[in-house]
Amino acid sequence: MVTTSQDKKKETVDDTKRDFLLYSTYTVGAVGALAAAWPFIDSMNPSKDVLALASTELDLSSVEEGQSITAMWRGKPVFIRKRTADEIKLAKSIKLSELKDPQSDGDRVQKDQWLVLVGICTHLGCIPSGQKGGDVKGDFNGWFCPCHGSHYDTSGRIRKGPAPKNLDVPPYRFTNETNIIIG
Ligand code: FES
Q: What is the pTM of this model?
């Protein structure tokens, strides 16, 4: 069959129509998928009460030397300890070569007296003991995780046991001598 120029023109017009239909279908498909996914995506956004706890502000003026308090930040316990002079001295005297996760005490604190830690064992996530006066503090006088026996020192560094890392230091800042914002 001989193809005339009119046939060619018709073919081109048909192609354009087909392309338009295809694009329309894709667009509708994409919008439909997004609309269907929206409740799911929206549900992944933090709720207002969680956002409100994105940072935690505390007045530490009543915390005494040698005392620890536990705050909550983003659903995690945060240990804040006002260290004694002996604890600070001990933390600073340790050589990095003795540490499993080498980190100097100076890199873990902003003010020598205040140690701020996420109170979650870096092994499998238990909460170590050592916050209260009568608690077992482990062989290095810091914190002890009874789940599998991890010992942390007075800088929250892992010294013995299966935990691979030091206790995390959360982001924080002091707004004056004793007011702290965590997060
Ligand atoms: S969870 Fe702390 S030692 Fe295993």
A: 0.73
